[in-house]
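so my prof wants the structure for this chain in the tokens format not the other one, which i didnt know existed until like an hour ago. anyway here's the sequence
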Amino acid sequence: MSLLEIEGLEKKDYSNSRPLDVHKWSEYPEVNRFIDEIFKDLSSFNGNTKITKKLLKVLLLDLYVAWSSDPDLMIMFSRNNNAYQAKSRYNELHVGKKIIHLVDVCIDHNIIEQKIGFNDRLNGVSYQSRIWASDWLKERFKEARFNLFHLHSHPERETIVLKDRNKKLINYVDTKDIKRMRSLLHDYNELLARTHLDILDLETPLLTIGNGKKKMRLQINQQDKFVRRIFNNSVFDQGGRFYGGWWQRCPKEFRKRIMMDGIMTAEIDFSGLHVVLLYAQEGIDYWSEVNEDPYALSQVTNIDPSINQRAAAKLLFLTALNAEDEKKTFHAFRYQSEKGSLEKKMTDEQLSSLLHNLKRKHEPIAYKMASGAGIDLMYVDSQITEYLIKAFTKIGCPILTVHDSYIVPFGYDRFLHQQMQKGFEQVTGISHPALKHTTDYYDRFENEPEPSSPPQYMEKDYSKVASQRHLKDLSLFREFMDKPERENWVPDWTMVY
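here's what i got, hopefully its the right format
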């Protein structure tokens, strides 16, 4: 039975969903009054009143965030008791299995609606249970005397995450180094919370990205800005990358239009970072001693010439670093390729030829391909990212990270460039990495302009018009946060509000 057959005439997109966030919180008086009013109707719920109200607040606030961001967005909800570990360091509000009973009571009282988990056999997709606000609750949301800016992640939410080989969250003992990392992320998240992050020209703060099974709707809002650092394989020297924030899932073409407190941004990334890191481990300075496009190959004979060979080679190389063998490499390559693309149809034989040519081009590091080396490289690049987050947080200027690419307010790209060089050298011992601006207008400023003669070409280079939604949201955010029209970190000559 297909999904549409299951639902009959009712068409609901169950893929438009996200997991329940058990850390959404607020102590704003109007929020508490809202929760108290709804709690009065839950006459059938037996148990500790204080605990019940806490669970109800977590549940309703996350439903409110979902509804505010996208009225059709659903919450993925596990009905497995084992999914809720109240005493885990990753569950600061100690949300336990009682929330399952609370959801059932809310359903009985027409507060929320639910679709029990099921299999869509036609499309080969399994769905966890979904919950969403009922029409009655949506009307209460519309009447609520609070808004998204009154909600936040619980201040004690864990930022340092450790997973085992099965990607399961595990506990650990704090060390001096872990406390240092947590302190930095606390300050960084505080900085992000005070920064308005948005895409300039979106009238509706939603992006539909991907296709097929990977299709998703990305909500652009001030609630999805919390960043964590995730380590893997039960150790603190594998993985360690920084995750969180809607910008990490945002396509590159939209990242160019990200605004920070009304200021346009610039993005710089490392060229061929993992290639360079692998060569560095062999004592070779790639850009000084080799200095070739790491993904450029002579035409592989058994590959369709219509395929963008360089792009395919790059994807295969990076995929091979994170796979344990060639079979898993090829499977992962096809999974990541665009639906219906020629790359998706490449055979193991074709991919093997491409990988062979990559190994021949990169003989000193060929043994690292299809070896699972990527998890170690992630730790190295995460150290560089940590250096950059520390440098920018120290001066109170926001920075967004997309693993080996970094977004900063326009006017700070020169400082970012310098810090990327310093961070790379400090972590790897190698100087002069290859850095690349991904924005089109960076090189217009060879020198800092005089305030009296601002650049006249900015409007042409950044021609998108700010949406009324963006301007209104920015104004409300400034008012709520009691922010000045211009932050201290904004250069006097920046004329890009």
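also thought this was worth mentioning. Residues 49-69 form the longest helix (21 residues).
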